[in-house]
């Protein structure tokens, strides 16, 4: 048992190259591979309470740890680690303390006084977590599949916003926001309230004792992250330690429009900008490594993970250990291309709820594992609990895409400050690019051509017999599935990957919005390209009649440019 445990533990060393900690208590083993972000000198794990009766291993960040320490005046902390509060909160509040944590986290806590343990995961599933069971009665918890798949008879994704208690032997959801029921909210849109909530979300993520930067694609979301970070960096502890000049990072195919847009934003904000290029062949050569680390066979996730995986390696080589990124905005505000077809505000709101609930299987999975593969941490302010509460309480009529309101209009308008602009107008109102398409059609077409070399028509004819679950429908998806099955052949592994009909990253339910989509189930944005173009043609007609808002008129030439080759990390 111990030998197998150490083997599995060492498979996760890439996630935490700074320290390896192991603790044993009877039949309980807790191990941790540490990426040191807060208190690198003394925050090694496992962490303990005063008498070492409570033992914790944690992946993630607790942004409100200083406030929580003030609630524990009679406790003595061994380290300055943000995660050190967890064992002490458990002592004071029992298993009901998890909702007090503001951050991204997955943790296991062992109470040696009665040999009970709890497992918990953050609200949205920003950090990855899996749970498995062995024939011998053992229970395994790991940040990645590869940490337990060889020793468990069954394993599955640990659900976000849940806690497992060995005392009750079951899971319960600790995260219960109002939006989770998908009831239609009615709060009027307040642009300043939305702006303040996002700024607070970004500011709290500037908590770091190591060099950091931002991922910048030149798209709306990453540009807002960079703009707010740049505006509030001065005066922070991070600035005092590492300087007030923000570093930004972008990767792309050479001469792509998105690289140009990122340079423009970086110049406007005055960041120290790092631009990296990759070729289609570079990406293809990395596919097997990407699938091994991301642990999925989902087509869009693999397409988007590959540039991020390549970029993370370059960033880590520069000595940077943390980046702030823009994941989550499209899910919250209905920013994907197919939202143009939302028939009403009720359907739009329900779809945003479904998308947020599924983030742990897609964009959060990508952001966490593509960066962790190289010992880099990604923080995502759009998925801040408080910010989500504000954004999801807005009457969804304001999020509907219609003449005068392009996708994510409520977010754009919130940062449209004439006196102290956050971004140039044409960036603030820049058209949404689907990530895998923004990479450039040469990237996607190159992947498809490569798959054609490895998957023939006869293989596709038998796909349903070889892969009865989530049967591949294209040669590209078949190719990814073959690689995944080689690394993770267990049935439990294939069940961790979502499936179902999708068009341009939609859920299966949203495919019903347009009857023609059922015949064109392409996960990339080009499937919804026609409706996206027609929407902006409608804007153009309004502009010619003088009926469109000035910011729309000014940016129509950019909005009408769809499908240009380019690349970016998370617009």
UniProtKB/TrEMBL annotation:
Pathway(s) of this molecule: Amino-acid biosynthesis; L-asparagine biosynthesis; L-asparagine from L-aspartate (L-Gln route): step 1/1
Source species, domain of life: Eukaryota
GO molecular function, one term: ATP binding
Gene Ontology BP term (one): response to stress
Catalyzed chemical reaction(s): L-aspartate + L-glutamine + ATP + H2O = L-asparagine + L-glutamate + AMP + diphosphate + H(+)
EC number: 6.3.5.4
Gene Ontology cellular component annotations, sorted alphabetically: cytosol
Domain Glutamine amidotransferase type-2: residue ranges: 1-169
PROSITE patterns: GATASE_TYPE_2
UniProt entry tagged with the keyword Ligase: yes
Keyword Iron-sulfur: no
Protein keywords: Amino-acid biosynthesis, Asparagine biosynthesis, ATP-binding, Glutamine amidotransferase, Ligase, Nucleotide-binding
Matching InterPro entries: Asn_synth_AEB, Asn_synthase, Asn_Synthetase, AsnB_N, GATase_2_dom
PANTHER family the record matches: ASPARAGINE SYNTHETASE, ASPARAGINE SYNTHETASE [GLUTAMINE-HYDROLYZING] 1
Xref: NCBIfam families: PRK09431.1
Protein name: Asparagine synthetase [glutamine-hydrolyzing]
The species this protein was found in: Populus tomentosa (Chinese white poplar)
């Amino acid at each position: 048992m111990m030998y197998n445990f150490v083997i599995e533990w060492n498979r996760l060393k890439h996630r935490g190259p700074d320290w390896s900690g192991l603790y044993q208590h009877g039949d309980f083993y807790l191990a941790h591979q540490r990426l040191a972000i807060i208190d690198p000198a003394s925050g090694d794990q496992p962490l303990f309470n005063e008498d070492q009766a409570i033992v914790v291993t944690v992946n993630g960040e607790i942004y409100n740890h200083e406030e929580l320490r003030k609630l524990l005046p009679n406790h003595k902390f061994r380290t300055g680690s943000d995660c050190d509060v967890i064992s002490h909160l458990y002592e004071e509040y029992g298993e009901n303390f998890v909702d007090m944590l503001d951050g991204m986290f997955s943790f296991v806590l062992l109470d040696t006084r009665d040999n009970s343990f709890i497992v918990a995961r953050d609200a949205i599933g920003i950090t990855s977590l899996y749970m498995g069971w062995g024939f011998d009665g053992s229970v395994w918890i790991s940040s990645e599949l590869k940490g337990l798949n060889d020793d468990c008879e069954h394993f599955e994704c640990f659900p976000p916003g849940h806690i497992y208690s060995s005392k009750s032997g079951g899971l319960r959801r600790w995260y219960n926001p109002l939006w989770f029921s998908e009831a239609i909210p009615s709060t009027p849109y307040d642009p300043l309230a939305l702006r303040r909530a996002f700024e607070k979300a970004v500011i709290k993520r500037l908590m770091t004792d190591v060099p950091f930067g931002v991922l910048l694609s030149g798209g709306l979301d990453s540009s807002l992250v960079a703009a707010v970070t740049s505006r509030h960096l001065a005066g922070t502890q991070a600035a005092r330690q590492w300087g007030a000049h923000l570093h930004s990072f972008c990767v792309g195919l050479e001469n792509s429009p998105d690289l140009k847009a990122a340079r423009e934003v970086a110049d406007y904000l005055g960041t120290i900008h790092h631009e990296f290029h990759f070729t289609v062949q570079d990406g293809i050569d990395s596919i097997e490594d990407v699938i091994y680390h991301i642990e999925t066979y989902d087509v869009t996730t693999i397409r988007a993970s590959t540039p991020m995986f390549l970029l993370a390696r370059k960033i880590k080589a520069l000595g940077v250990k943390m980046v702030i990124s823009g994941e989550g905005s499209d899910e919250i505000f209905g920013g994907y291309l197919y939202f143009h077809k939302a028939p009403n505000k009720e359907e739009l709101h329900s779809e945003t709820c479904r998308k947020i609930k599924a983030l742990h299987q897609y964009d959060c999975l990508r952001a966490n594992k593509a960066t962790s593969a190289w010992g880099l941490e990604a923080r995502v302010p759009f998925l801040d609990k408080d910010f989500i509460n504000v954004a999801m309480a807005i009457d969804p009529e304001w999020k509907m895409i219609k003449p005068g309101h392009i996708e994510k209009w409520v977010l754009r308008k919130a940062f449209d400050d004439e006196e102290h602009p956050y971004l140039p107008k044409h960036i603030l109102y820049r058209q949404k690019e689907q990530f895998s398409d923004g990479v450039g059609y040469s990237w996607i077409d190159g992947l498809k051509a490569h798959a054609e070399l490895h998957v023939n028509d006869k293989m596709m004819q038998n796909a349903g017999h070889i892969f009865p679950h989530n049967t591949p429908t294209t040669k590209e998806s078949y190719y990814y599935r073959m690689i995944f099955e080689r690394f993770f052949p267990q049935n439990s592994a294939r069940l961790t990957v979502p499936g179902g009909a999708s068009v341009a990253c939609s859920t299966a339910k949203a495919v019903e919005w347009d009857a023609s989509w059922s015949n064109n189930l392409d996960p990339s944005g080009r499937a919804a390209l026609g409706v996206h173009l027609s929407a902006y043609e409608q804007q153009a007609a309004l502009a010619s009649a003088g009926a469109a808002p000035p910011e729309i008129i000014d940016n129509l030439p950019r909005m009408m440019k769809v499908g240009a080759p380019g690349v970016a990390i998370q617009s």
